[in-house]
Design goal:
By secondary structure, the protein is α/β, with parallel strands linked by helices. The two termini are 36 Å apart. A hairpin with a 2-residue loop joins strand 5 (102-106) and strand 6 (109-113). Helix 2 (31-41) crosses helix 11. It has 2 domains: 3-114 and 254-280, Rossmann fold, CATH 3.40.50; 117-249, Rossmann fold, CATH 3.40.50.720. It has helices at 3-11, 31-41, 58-66, 80-86, 92-97, 116-128, 144-156, 168-176, 235-242, 251-266, 272-287, and strands spanning 17-23, 46-52, 72-75, 89-90, 102-106, 109-113, 136-140, 160-164, 182-184, 195-198, 223-226, 246-248. The strands form 2 sheets. Strands 2-1-3-5-6-4 form a 6-stranded mixed beta sheet, with helices on both faces. A 6-stranded parallel beta sheet has the order 9-8-7-10-11-12, with helices on both faces.
């Protein structure tokens, strides 16, 4: 085990229950802010840290979890896929996505979960009171976040999911997650949908001048959800709001995927408003730095 991991686990031998997010890079992660705000509010002797590790150290981290050295584990890029093959079993959702973002220790072993999709759905309900049953959705993008959203929407009762992506084979693979209601489409299909989700990086700092789809294709009868949360409002979201469209950023998806993980690890109800306040404050500060 690397010296940096030894120090972390030794420090927490007796002081508190340790939880962590692992990835590379991981210093930018907002997960410690979310979870530590919840632990502090509930006066729980838990500490959540970000661990920068290599792929070779994944097994060592999981061994620490098996030995009780970790009470909870979050997984971010680039380890979500390989983690699905390292845990003892996966939930049906994590198995379908072949991606794990949350590991839970149980009597049956280490269980891999993927809370991203349900985090998106719960965020949408929280923000827009949007019931997806019977609705039509369009998802722009076909990467990991898009796939999680597609899989969750397919379980939620939507009648169709149109996947729009520059690479056709990736779009087809993502659409397959929705079964019979999934299809590959083009931007011209967007006006016929009730929910439009941007699951691409278009709108982030390096791509801020690019829009996931033309504003002209959107109308006020739709809900627009952008998975980007930094910046809090991309130029695309700002323009949709100016057009009178109910539009939401990715903060709530980030929040509610963490809420689910918190409860899986601790068995306690997460203090949602406290976690939301902490993450909103942090993102606001980062925006104006």
């Amino acid at each position: 085990m690397g010296d940096h991991l030894k120090k972390v686990f030794k420090k927490n031998d007796t002081s508190s229950t340790l939880a962590a997010v692992i990835g590379s890079p991981v210093t930018h992660s907002l997960s410690p802010i979310l979870h530590n705000a919840a632990f502090d509010f509930l006066k729980m002797k838990w500490e959540y840290v970000a661990l920068e590790i290599t792929e070779r150290e994944l097994e060592e981290v999981l061994e620490q979890m098996r030995l009780g050295g970790l009470g909870g584990l979050s997984v971010t890029m680039p380890f979500k896929t390989i983690m699905a093959s390292l845990v003892d079993s996966c939930t049906p959702t994590a198995q379908a996505l072949n991606a794990v973002n949350c590991v839970v220790s149980t009597e049956e072993g280490l269980i891999g979960h993927n809370t991203d999709g349900d985090g998106f759905l719960n965020g949408l309900i929280h923000d827009a009171q949007f019931d997806p049953r019977g609705k039509k959705a369009a998802v722009i993008g076909a990467g990991g976040a898009a796939r999680a959203v597609i899989e969750a929407l397919a379980r939620s009762g939507v009648t169709s999911i149109t996947v729009i992506n520059r690479t056709l084979d990736k779009a087809e693979s993502a659409a397959d997650l929705a079964g019979e209601i999934g299809r590959v489409g083009t931007p011209e299909d967007i006006p016929e949908t009730d929910l439009v989700v941007n699951a691409t990086s278009l709108g982030m700092k390096d791509n801020s001048e690019f829009f996931p789809c033309p504003i002209e294709l959107l109308h006020p009868n739709q809900i627009v959800a952008d998975l980007i949360y930094h910046p809090l409002e991309t130029p695309w979201i700002l323009e949709t709001k100016q057009k009178g469209i109910n539009s939401y950023n990715g903060v709530s998806m980030l929040l509610f995927q963490a809420v689910e993980a918190f409860t899986l690890w601790t068995g306690k109800e997460a203090p949602i408003s406290v976690m939301q306040g902490a993450i909103t404050q942090e993102l606001t500060e980062r925006t104006y730095k």
